[in-house]
Amino acid sequence: MATLLSFHAHPDDECLLTGGTLAKAKSDGHRVVIVVATGGEEGEYPAGFVSDRSELPDRRRGELLESAKVLGVDKVYFLGYRDSGMMGTQSNSNPKSFWMTDIDESAKALAEIIAIERPEVVTIYDEIGGYGHPDHINVNRVCLRACEISGLSEVYQATMNRDYLMELMADYSVDNPGKVPDEPQSAFGMGEDAIDTAVDVSEYVFLKREALSRHRSQIGGVAFVFDLGNEDFARAFGTEWFISRHPKEKEFRTAIL
């Protein structure tokens, strides 16, 4: 049995890019651990969901624990930083935010968890954080430093296959005009030529949707995901894409464990 540690920025980030990989790892008999950097304080939420925004982090942590149970996660750790919000917003400069953290200090905190769990494999996000979110970018930076401290080399950067998704969105829009989200204004994911690992999680894709549904505070932001039929959802999210930080081989890989 190996241990897989998946480092994320906010509660709910574990679902779409890595949820299938986590569920598959558990099904294959491995220990699965999630570490979350922030409480998701800057997330949007439905009117009346909480009486005050200060209550949101506790609610979101509870949602994460529910999601983790669906995916079969064995242990969840919270680093306790504040959500930095989207790039360019005032919350970026909050001294308690993850974006303002000292990289070495945060890396040491993560390295302590790595020392406890002793994972063989770690997942993070790609170097642009998937879509440029400050906390996602720092997940990459902090974890790479923590892995240097820990001597851990098996690091996989979860990403979106931009070429595949753009083609998929174009096909979907033909039969579903007006239902496709607007094209992102900033770069997202990586081109297919940068990706060297693709994990088939089609057997677990229903668990990804179920886990995401447990994040009730955030469903409004991903409503389009729940509008997809089962077949379209599986096409969009039935493969999880990674860039291996220190690949053992140059050939394309289909598993991280």
From TrEMBL:
Which segments cross the bilayer?
A: none
- Gene3D superfamilies assigned to the protein according to its UniProt record, in alphabetical order: LmbE-like
Molecular function via GO: hydrolase activity, acting on carbon-nitrogen (but not peptide) bonds, in linear amides
Pfam families in alphabetical order = PIG-L
Protein name (record): LmbE family protein
Origin species, per record, is mine drainage metagenome
